[in-house]
UniProtKB/TrEMBL annotation:
It comes from Aquiflexum balticum DSM 16537. The keyword Metal-binding does not apply. This is TPR repeat-containing protein. InterPro entries: TPR-like_helical_dom_sf, TPR_rpt, Ycf3. Keywords: Repeat, TPR repeat. The lineage of its organism: Bacteria, Pseudomonadati, Bacteroidota, Cytophagia, Cytophagales. The keyword Zinc does not apply.
Length: 236
């Protein structure tokens, strides 16, 4: 459940042969919202040609590049936006997301910390920072961030699931079982959660019957890693 910030602008008007900087930007946003990412980049580049200090155009270009999976170029665009305006949390958050996709967890964490310092009310920052901390095996801090998200909305299955993974990393199988049970109650199609629940029940608590039942659910939902556990431990 990774979330990415994209501006949405609804009204685009063109007058004459030479659209204004704002009109070009608005058209780029419109194209990006319809998943025409390459065309939107062309419009953002035209904005930048008119005004090389348009921080919003660099940030929006970065988002379009991100959506194309071009994370390195996206990072460059977000960096340009940050250099022009280091007071907005948005390009820091977006650049952190690009680093997260590259599994550059330390760099992502630094950007999420900056974003959080600029706007501590953004729940998406806490969630994605939790993912970066999980990647860095900083489990207690990851649990803290997921708890912040869940305090605001306890009905987010992926936040429950990732909290469970952090709890297991932090040697808290009891807490992890609770979070995993919450996960599957909220999303009964999450095969990975059933798998982790079954493995934890069997390995940490010796609950073979319940564990095998959850492993079989995981396999039925297409989580193939459950097969070897079932073959090794759940045969009658």
């Amino acid at each position: 459940m990774k979330k990415y910030f994209i501006w949405v602008t609804f009204f685009v008007f063109f007058f004459g042969c030479s659209p204004s900087e704002q009109e070009l930007f608005d058209e780029g946003i419109k194209l990006m919202e319809s998943s025409q990412y390459q065309k939107s980049i062309e419009y953002f580049d035209r904005v930048i040609q008119k005004n090389p200090e348009n921080t919003s155009a660099f940030n929006a270009k970065g988002v379009a590049l991100f959506q194309q999976g071009n994370f390195d170029e996206a990072i460059k665009a977000f960096t340009s936006s940050i250099e022009l305006d280091p007071t907005s949390y948005k390009p820091f958050f977006n650049r952190g997301n690009a680093y997260l996709e590259k599994k550059s967890y330390k760099e992502a964490l630094l950007d999420y910390n900056m974003a959080n310092g600029l706007d501590a009310k953004q729940g998406d920052v806490y969630y994605n920072r939790g993912l970066a901390l999980l990647g860095l095996e900083e489990y207690e801090d990851a649990i803290f961030d997921f708890d912040v998200v869940l305090q605001d909305n306890p009905n987010l299955p992926l936040a429950q699931f990732n909290k469970a993974k952090a709890q297991l990393g932090n040697n808290d199988p009891v807490g992890a079982i609770g979070s995993l049970n919450n996960t599957v109650k909220l999303d009964n199609r999450n095969g990975a959660a059933y798998y982790l629940l079954g493995v934890t029940q069997m390995s940490a608590f010796g609950q073979k019957e319940d564990g095998c039942a959850n492993l079989k659910l995981a396999l039925n939902l297409g989580f193939s890693e459950a097969k070897s556990w079932i073959e090794d431990f759940c045969q009658d």
